[in-house]
Design brief:
Layout (H helix, E strand, L loop, with lengths): L6 H5 L7 H16 L2 E2 L7 H5 L7 E5 L24 H14 L10 H5 L2 E5 L4 E2 L11 H13 L6 E5 L1 H4 L11 E5 L16 H11 L10
Length: about 220
């Protein structure tokens, strides 16, 4: 039984009994028994545990967890304390510095963002060591579609930051006009220079929150 310790327990209570999720659960049991899987099982739902439904101010949507040791801990783009920031995260920090003048952090742990209301959600919540997208099309996409759909229903405005094509595929689920959608290429070195750098999503997020009388995010890590 998954326990998230906040409003998500009630909102998602029926999801964990659905056929697709039970199949996903069986798949994950086998994967964790036979392979190295990231993040550790107890960290899979960290994004939902850390940022409760009613507390969400912004959503940063990633693709799937980092697939190297000591990186993934259940928050999209974030790495565990003491781990060198991967290239995509370094590019996020570069844009943060360009946009808001915040100096390059000494840690890649973004838990502080999550605790302020930034839901750091991957579309796929697990991955096999060294094999990006190895857990795609196993059921996680359906689960995270449900999470986004529930957020879309919320009356209080939310900023959705969709970086890269996989994240932007969720855009069709965000239909309420009072939410604010920001899109940009993925911060990966392969695409960051195609429009992620210079997108100013951090200041745009805070401007929108301020306009809607919602406390802005302190983006310092």
């Amino acid at each position: 039984m998954v326990s998230l310790g906040n409003e998500w327990d009630y909102i998602l209570k029926n999801e964990f009994d659905k056929e697709y999720y039970l199949k996903l659960r069986q798949f994950l049991k086998k994967e964790y028994a036979e392979h190295i899987i990231y993040p550790k099982a107890h960290n899979i739902f960290n994004a939902l545990r850390t940022t409760s439904y009613n507390d969400v101010k912004a959503v940063i949507l990633g693709q799937d967890p980092y697939h190297n040791p000591n990186q993934a801990h259940g928050l999209a783009f974030s790495v565990q304390k003491g781990t060198i920031a991967p290239p995509s995260l370094i590019n996020i920090f570069k844009e943060l510095q360009s946009d808001l003048g915040i100096e390059m952090p000494k840690t890649g742990d973004l838990s502080g963002w999550a605790k302020q209301g930034v839901l750091l959600l991957n579309a796929i919540l697990t991955v096999r060591h060294g094999a990006a997208l190895s857990h795609s099309k196993k059921g996680w996409e359906t689960f995270t579609d449900t999470v986004i759909s529930h957020l879309n229903e919320r009356e209080k405005p939310i900023v959705f930051l969709l970086w890269g094509r996989p994240a932007q595929q969720k855009q069709s689920l965000i239909t309420n006009k009072h939410h604010y959608i920001l899109t940009a290429p993925h911060p990966s070195p392969l695409s960051a220079f195609s429009g992620f750098f210079g997108c100013k999503h951090f200041s745009k997020t805070n401007n929108f929150l301020h306009q809607n009388n919602i406390e802005s995010i302190k983006w310092q890590v």
